[in-house]
UniProtKB/TrEMBL annotation:
Signal peptide: none annotated. This is Olfactory receptor. Pfam families: 7tm_4 (PF13853). GO terms for cellular component: plasma membrane. It is found in: Cell membrane; Membrane. It is a multi-pass membrane protein. Its main location: membrane. Keywords: Cell membrane, G-protein coupled receptor, Membrane, Olfaction, Receptor, Sensory transduction, Transducer, Transmembrane, Transmembrane helix. Belongs to the G-protein coupled receptor 1 family. It comes from Alligator sinensis. GO terms for molecular function: G protein-coupled receptor activity; olfactory receptor activity. It comes from the Eukaryota. Residues 39-285 form the G-protein coupled receptors family 1 profile domain. The gene is LOC102379470.
Length: 309
């Protein structure tokens, strides 16, 4: 792969070049990554161990947590390691691998969030048909479809990028390998490729966001006729999901629904969907969900009791 390019490695300029800021960032992002791994693992273990969390919503949530662990691992450890070295390099193959898995897992998360919104729509608006429509078989196919959609999206992005000639310079003004910064380094006019990127990544983000907004408008209209307790429960569940959607899809739309240009705030915006969202997901879904908190306490008590014996 490398032999077809003059560039065998890229230099990542990182999140900041200030040494004092890098030390602070090292501590912060190490903490963020630890919280991401522990929090999402805790959700997966709780859902798999609990007899009460068997609804499709928690089935999807366990996969969302798994994707979050993988997604944050694609970029965050490399970024944290970069705070220790002055010259942050990544091989051409490593860069393309990071690009592929970043888009693969990121797009899979978008599709999973959309599937979860559909699940909430059926549960709240068509409760009598919920168990008939959202069977285990259907849920499995939805998850598989999310993974497949993410793979197809990512392979298109990666193949388009790897075919570009890179003659130098090789400095990427970012902490990760992504399409827009790489297009700036290509030796040819990348206008057409940039349009494909917008049509691919940008439109997926925008379309899913519009679908999600419409589904929640329908949900909010439908719960007006319910009791106050029923409305509060539905709103609590939906509020958690809407929060995650806005934090994740908002920055994605800003980053990819535009021509192949880069802005000074791009690195900061990227932190939201590569670092913050995977970390916040378990906090958002547990702090606002009594069922998950109760299940976690039961798993903890069961674990303590087994150790005492």
């Amino acid at each position: 792969m490398e032999s077809s390019h003059n560039v065998s490695e890229f230099i990542l300029l990182g999140l900041t070049q200030d040494q004092e800021s890098e030390q602070i960032c090292f501590l912060l992002f190490s903490l963020f990554y630890a919280v991401t791994i522990v929090g999402n693992l805790l959700i997966i273990i709780t859902i798999k161990s609990s007899q009460s969390l068997i609804s499709p919503m928690y089935f999807f949530l366990s996969y969302l947590s798994f994707v979050d662990i993988c997604y944050s691992t694609v970029t965050t450890p490399k970024m944290i390691a970069g705070f220790f070295v002055e010259r942050k390099t990544i091989s051409f193959a490593g860069c393309m691998t990071q690009l592929f898995f970043g888009h693969f897992l990121g797009c899979t998360e978008i599709f999973l969030l959309t599937v979860m919104a559909y699940d909430r729509y059926i549960a709240i608006c068509k409760p009598l048909h919920y168990m008939t429509l959202m069977t285990g078989h259907v849920c499995g196919w939805m998850v598989l479809g999310s993974w497949t959609g993410g793979f197809v999206h990512s392979i298109i992005q990666t193949l388009l990028t790897t075919q570009l000639p890179f003659c130098g310079p090789n400095e990427i003004d970012h902490y990760l390998c992504d399409v827009h910064p790489l297009l700036k380094l290509a030796c040819i006019d990348t206008y057409i490729v940039g349009i494909v990127v917008v049509a691919n990544t940008g439109m997926i983000s925008l379309t899913c966001f519009v679908v999600l907004v419409i589904s929640y408008i329908i949900i909010l209209v439908s719960i007006r006729r319910r009791t106050s307790e029923g409305r509060l429960k539905a709103l609590s569940t939906c509020a958690s999901h809407i929060t995650v959607v806005v934090i994740f899809l908002g920055p994605c739309i800003f980053m990819y629904l535009r021509p192949s240009t880069t802005f000074s705030v791009d690195k900061t915006v990227s932190v939201f969907y590569t670092v913050f969202t995977p970390m916040l997901n378990p906090l958002i879904y547990t702090l606002r969900n009594e069922e998950v908190k109760t299940a976690m306490r039961k798993v903890w008590i069961r674990q303590v009791d087994s150790e005492d014996k």
